[in-house]
């Protein structure tokens, strides 16, 4: 598609150029150009679709399918283009397919992180607030590739201008996971996501936005009309969902954790605009009051919920509301200076996690896995380790089901705005071919997801092989299926 439009563009530019040569050849008389001639004039940076065999056959694998808490018997799995075409205990005859002999290893769905910030995960806070936006984007590109190489083939991006990065990944310009972007975090003045300085006040209604607004990372809105506008701007840019910050947050300097930020009418304005667009609103909320007010206004997913009480958990169960809680590593507090208010707030939230996970289990809340790592490339490397650290509350099979098929079920809430309609988070016929070949059984040894460099011997996303350490090791057979690029 892209190649075709680039060719058309190149053809018209080239034809126009001919028209200016001053020769007798007028533009409309110019001979049609062959693809070879055009290729000489194509920009060198044209993104090439990765070189891939049209079919990949995994033989002799045991499958964790994303739903069943046990492994299958020996299976063969045929991937054609970007989908899983066939799963069989019998040999699959597919001449021409690249064969990956699993030698009894485990084939599982790619991991999904339901609360990720593609744009914020790498740079320190100061760089994000004051740095050059191109620099921030390049860091984000590097982090996206690292996430993919940790086995995370999809992320739900919960705030930040990730649209360009998503496009670049989908067009194979850079490597990274599928991104479900929320776009800018919509917040109130002084709320979580308002990173302005004192001297930025007062804001006049209708005046140009703050730096964060202009970059598209956050959007300040102080009335139902403004919330509606900001929501529709995110939908305009391609948001798969809308994110509001319904209460105070850790990293924002002027938002106390106990604060209720939006009014019910403001949240309803966002819910109405998102629902009209066929998608949903998720809110950042810690306290019971913030959570309950959001649910009342029609919000479908609560991010964090770290300070909520038992009655609120019961309400969430009754209303079938999703919970996206975080098991933050304690070191994450190091992003904030010792003794700072932000550090104090982090510890309050950190300590609330235990109660929240216990409530989620007690009331069987629909719970997803998401890390919410911010401002630290080093901590981001622990994306899989954070999942593995949650055995205090869940069994390894429960965690793996959560980080694959349950997270994928949440992604489907994007409805008609789902950028990747189809089945993710499962190994089943017809699903997208987002697959990991694991050296060991993660259902019994969850630590394998914490060491992706060693454990994940093959990483495939959308049918493209991004890693294959079996290649050349003598363990493959038939035509080899090497990494694409
Ligand atoms: Zn977040």
From TrEMBL:
Signal sequence region: 1-27
GO molecular function: hydrolase activity, acting on carbon-nitrogen (but not peptide) bonds
SUPFAM superfamilies noted in UniProt: Composite domain of metallo-dependent hydrolases, Metallo-dependent hydrolases
Protein keywords: Hydrolase, Signal
Residues annotated as domain Amidohydrolase-related: 106-464
Keyword Hydrolase: yes
Keyword Translocase among record annotations: no
Protein name: Imidazolonepropionase-like amidohydrolase
